Amino acid sequence: MAFHLLQHDRHAALQIARALEHAVSSIKHCDLCNTLTEQDICRTCSNAQRDRSKLCVVETPADQAALERTLAYRGLYFVLMGKLSPLDGIGPHDIGLQKLFDRVVPKDDAGLLMPVESREVQEVILATNFTAEGEATAHVISQALKSRGVQVTRLARGVPVGSELEYVDLGTIAHALVDRR
Amino acid sequence: MAFHLLQHDRHAALQIARALEHAVSSIKHCDLCNTLTEQDICRTCSNAQRDRSKLCVVETPADQAALERTLAYRGLYFVLMGKLSPLDGIGPHDIGLQKLFDRVVPKDDAGLLMPVESREVQEVILATNFTAEGEATAHVISQALKSRGVQVTRLARGVPVGSELEYVDLGTIAHALVDRR
Ligand SMILES: [Zn+2]
Ligand SMILES: [Zn+2]
Predict the structure, then answer these.
(1) Per-residue pLDDT tens for A137-146?
(2) Total number of domains constituting chain B
(3) Alpha carbon of A56 to those of A106, A153, A178, B57, B176: distances in Å?
(4) Is A153 on the interface with B (CB under 8 A)?
C-alpha cells in the first residue's frame, strides 16, 4: 500500500497523513463509556432515547457495533478497550476497570459510595467475548460489582440460532444443557 | 464404488449385500426411545445407571451421539427419527410424536392418563435442532406436553463457547441478550 501511494498517488498519501494527524490530536475517550470519540461525551451516551439504567460492558467498539446491529438493546454501553490477559501482562489497570466501577458505583459529594437506590445504573450486562480471556474479564467484573450490590447478568451461552446439534462443539452443547430454560 | 466392487472385489460386494440383508431383517426401533437397534430395548434405555426421570428429545441418532459426547447428560432419550416439515408433507404422524406422548404420559390399567406424580418421566428436555423445522417441532411437542402437566425445557440458545461477538450472527446475539442470566 505504501509503495502504491508513493509511486502513483502522492496526493492521497498526504491526505492520509493529515487525516491521521487530525485523528491523533482530536480523538479521545468518551468520559462516560470510554469508547473513542471526538466529543467529550460520545453520541450514544448523549442520546436521550436510551435506557440509562442498563449498562452493557463490551471489549471493543466492534463488539458494541455487533450488539447495536441486533436492534435488541436500548441501554448504554461501557467499552473496556481491551480484556484482562495476564499472559500478555494486561491487568485490571490496563483496561478501563476503575473507570467502569466509578461509573456504576459513583461516590457522592462526601466521597462515600452511593447506595443502590440512588445509582443511575441498575443492571450491568456483561457482553465480553466467550473466549478464555473474555470469560475471565467477565468474572472479575462480576465479582467486583456484585460485592457492591449491583445486579450483574451475562449474555446467554448456548446453541447458535439456525444450527444443527450434530455440528456444534461439545462445550457449547454442554453449556446449553446446563442453562436449559 | 459399485464399479470398483464388481471389477476388483466381488467377495466384498457379497459381504456388503449380506450385511445389508441382515440389517434390513434384524434392525428395528427401540420400544422405549424409538432409535434403531437390534434389541427390543436399546442399550441406552436398558442401562440401569441412567436417570430415568429425564427424557431428552432429539431428531436423529447422530444428535443423540453429539449430546452423549459431552458427558454432561445422564438421563434417557427419545429419538423422533425426523422432524415436522409441513412443506415436505411430514406431519405429526410421520415422526414418533404419538409414541413420545404415550411414553411420557402413559395410560394406567383403566385406560386413563397417569397423574403427574406416578409418571416415570418428570422433565422433557427438547434438543431438536435450532433450525426453523427443529424449532417448530419443539414448539408442537412443548404445547402438547405442557397441557398434560409435563415440565418441558429447551436447550439454551446463545453465543457458542469460544466465540467473539463480532463474528456471531445477529439473531444469536439478540437471543443471548433476551435470555441473559
Ligand atoms: Zn460514550
Ligand atoms: Zn432405547
Answers:
(1) 999 999 999 9
(2) 1
(3) 17, 9, 24, 35, 13
(4) yes
